[in-house]
């Protein structure tokens, strides 16, 4: 039994059942609030990392920075092209090396959903 559990057990034996229930509820609520705050902080940190990676991803695209992609993309990376084709990492790296082929790139990421283990890195690319 944990220290807090032992203290709760000792304290609850001196309290009426109603007060015991209220004490337990208060402890659980405090613990849940603490866990919620920690989860929000962790999610905010993860979103900040995703924003930073997205900015680096777009910069690497515009500058044809193949070494950045080699270092940061997983071996299982796939890219969905505008025409619907999907290409793997190697073909994507060759495409990046050829240069961006666009004149204006605008980063338009909006994070409104929970962070998950996989992420899309959207950007709008306009040919000019």
Brief sketch in words of this structure:
By secondary structure, the chain is mostly helical. Helices cover 56% and strands 9% of the residues.
Walk me through what this model shows.
This protein is mainly α. The chain has one domain. Helices cover about 55% and strands about 10% of the residues. It has a two-stranded antiparallel ribbon. Strands 3-4 form a two-stranded antiparallel sheet. The relative contact order is 0.11.
Question: Which key features would you list for this structure?
Answer:
128 residues, 4 helices, 4 strands, disordered C terminus, two-stranded antiparallel sheet, 9% strand
Strand order of the largest sheet: 1-2
What value does the average pLDDT take?
76
Could you tell me the number of beta strands? 4
**Helix amount, in percent?**
55-70%
Could you state the order of secondary-structure elements as H and E? HHHEEHEE
Rounded to the nearest angstrom, the distance between the terminal CA atoms is 68 Å
Low-confidence stretches: 111-119, 122-128
| Number of self-contained structural domains | 1
What percentage of amino acids are in beta strands?
Answer: 5-15%
Count, helices: 4
What is the rounded Rg? 25 Å
Taking the sheet with the most strands, its summary is: 2 strands, antiparallel
Summing up helix and strand content along with how strands pair, one would put the structural category as: mainly alpha
- Globular, elongated, flat, extended or rod-shaped: what is the shape? rod-shaped
Show the helix and strand layout.
Elements: H1 3-12, H2 17-62, H3 66-72, E1 78-80, E2 86-88, H4 89-97, E3 104-106, E4 124-126
Antiparallel strand pairs: 1-2, 3-4
């Amino acid at each position: 039994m944990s220290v807090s559990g032992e203290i709760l057990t000792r304290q609850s034996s001196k309290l009426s059942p109603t007060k015991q229930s209220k004490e337990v509820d208060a402890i659980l609520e405090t613990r849940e609030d603490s866990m919620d705050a920690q989860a929000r902080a962790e999610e905010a940190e993860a979103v900040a990392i995703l924003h930073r990676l997205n900015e680096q991803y777009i910069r690497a695209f515009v500058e044809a920075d193949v070494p950045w992609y080699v270092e940061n993309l997983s071996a299982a990376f796939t890219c969905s092209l505008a025409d619907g084709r999907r290409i793997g990492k190697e073909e994507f790296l060759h495409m990046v090396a050829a240069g961006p082929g666009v004149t204006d790139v605008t980063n338009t990421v909006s994070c409104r959903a929970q962070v998950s283990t996989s992420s899309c890195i959207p950007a709008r690319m306009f040919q000019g």
